[in-house]
Design a protein that fits this description.
The protein is mainly beta and 97 residues long. The protein has one domain. The protein is built from one helix and seven strands, in the order ββαβββββ. Strands 2-1-7 form a three-stranded antiparallel β-sheet, covered by helices on one side. Strands 3-6 form a two-stranded antiparallel sheet. A hairpin with a 7-residue loop joins strand 1 and strand 2. It is elongated, with a radius of gyration of 19 Å. 8% of the residues are buried.
Length: 97
């Protein structure tokens, strides 16, 4: 007897994370993660975030002084599914995640 099994592709979504808010605080960032669930999107985002990122200043010297460096730090313990503010169907539809 021949046995055939099919793996159903899961629906993909684009999860938009709005983390921090530069309108109300000094720093904010956003990210869009494509995944099948909010929890998987959160885990993917946490895995890819570095501990910190060095940002090149737009100008290193100005009338007020010179900027040696700008370092932005991330604390993934404070990122949760509550930071997802938009969910959209992914344009590709289904995928193998």
């Amino acid at each position: 007897m021949l046995s055939v099994s099919f793996v159903m592709a899961k629906k993909l979504y684009d999860y938009h994370f709005d983390i921090g808010n530069s309108n109300t605080g000094p720093v904010g960032f956003s990210a869009v993660v494509t995944s099948t669930t909010k929890r998987k999107a959160l885990n993917a985002l946490k895995r890819c975030l570095p501990e910190s990122v060095r940002v090149d200043p737009f100008e290193s010297k100005s009338k007020g002084g010179s900027i040696e460096y700008i370092e932005v730090y991330f604390n993934d313990l404070n990122i949760s599914v509550r930071d997802i503010d938009e969910v959209a169907d992914h344009p590709r539809g289904d995928g193998a995640f």
